[in-house]
Amino acid sequence: MRRFGVVGAVVFWLATQVAMATPLRVRAVVTGEGHDLFSVSATLSWLLKRHDDVELTLSRDAGALNAQSLQGVHVVILYAPGASLGSESERVLSDFVQAGGGLIYIHHSPGSSFAEGLPGNVVVEVTQPSHPLMRSIPAFQVTDAPGQAGDVPAEMLVLARQRNGQALVWVEQKGKGRVFYTALGHSSACWNHPHFQQVILNALYWCAGRPYPSVHTPRPPRGFTSLFNGVNLEGWGEVGPPVWYAQDGVMVCTGMSEGGGWLRSNRMYRNFILRLEYRIAPGGNSGIFLRAPHYGRSSRLAMELQVQDDGTSPPSNTCTSAVYSVVAPRVNPAKPAGEWNRVEITLKDRNLRVVWNGQLVHDIHLDDPALNANLPRTHLLYRRPNSGYIGLQNHRSLVEFRNIFIRELQ
Questions:
Q1: Would you state the pLDDT for residue 63?
Q2: Structural contact between residues 315 and 303, judged by C-beta atoms closer than 8 angstroms
Q3: What is the pTM of this model?
Q4: Residue 329: exposed, middle, or buried by beta-carbon count in 10 A (0-12, 13-18, 19+)?
Q5: Which domains does the chain have, with CATH numbers?
Q6: Distance CA 263, CA 253 (A)
Q7: How many angstroms separate the CA atoms of 344 and 354, rounded?
Q8: Contact 407, 273 (CB under 8 A)
């Protein structure tokens, strides 16, 4: 019996590892009237693609919910306020959940009593803080127009309410599957709130019956050290509005500020190899500062490598990977918005070498007379300093960074 128990435990462990290695396949439908469906689709896609194990298929057509399209799917997300799914789609969803699938309703409930609420400040009070779905969620306030859910059936568990008692987040078990509901999700302010985003991510893994992915300190390549621990902003300081935070192993700039700013390393660096990954929202703009001073315009007093959503643009001195307003890259290497880009920067004395998504975009000498010949005095490369901070720009755009590693050179 003892030997069988050990073997059984090993088999169970192996089965768990295989399940965890399987991509979490998600089918999302965003439809309905009277709502900004483009923004909801974009934000939902951005949020779910933060996790590399998630495979998302997104549609605007509720008719996409059929037995064939749900084969191999683990979780369905439905944002369809005011829309009628039809009896066939409702039957397919019911069978899907009964068989063990997960279903997430956002700003929508299948009950007939669900109606659109009025916009205003909503205080979200957690009523079941020990539930895994409310992992790390404190009470928070958002500007939103939550749906009026009416009386939630007794078999459902309410996880969060408004101060007036209205249910905002609730769940139920149906057959072998799980269902999540939230009345929130009308406004962009709600979708941009980190606590609401975390609730949705928690719901995804809870409905899939999977543990939430652990956040570990990124393991640097040999010879490198990590500049970001994946958990908080230790080792960095904000210059300008407080728009930066860490979540799920990424460094997030919300861009929600009237003015710009940047996040700078606590240490100054001279010669180094810097590796990082980033992704930027549609139409977004940011930058990577090298040898930057604490005060002043980093793109002039130091160097800025441009980061933006412009992958279809030809190379220029303001496109992605350009030494901003000074040197155009050999190619524009930018990937489409929402996809992760990989960057390696080598700065050794007066030499700058940059590889972006596997393409060599710069291999220059800052004091090269040909590069400096026609530049205004304010842009001269030979005037750029030999040491300074590493910085990440807030240009009032949503952008994320991860896996930030550095290797100092002699």
A1: 81
A2: no
A3: 0.85
A4: buried
A5: 2-208 (3.40.50.880), 225-408 (2.60.120.560)
A6: 9
A7: 6
A8: yes
